[in-house]
Amino acid sequence: MKTIAALQDLVTAESLNIEPSAAELDAIELEMPLIRAEVALLDAQILTLDRTPTELDERRLRRAGRKVLAARRALTNRTTGLTGGAA
Description:
Layout: H1 13-16, H2 22-47, H3 55-83
Helix pairs in contact: 2-3
């Protein structure tokens, strides 16, 4: 009988021992308004999962959707301005 073994070493969080770089942290910080807007939209969607959406729920969903679109637009405009390229 043959023994089956892994050909690579185990990869664990301790063996990697890496932290995000300053550039990665800056990128996350730049995207934070979009992340918050997407979380708010997800919260509004979760609220309506187990019930029929009321008028207030529908307004909350529309408002959250508009915030996501605005945050995406702002992020796209900001990153396009940083790279200097045309879309």
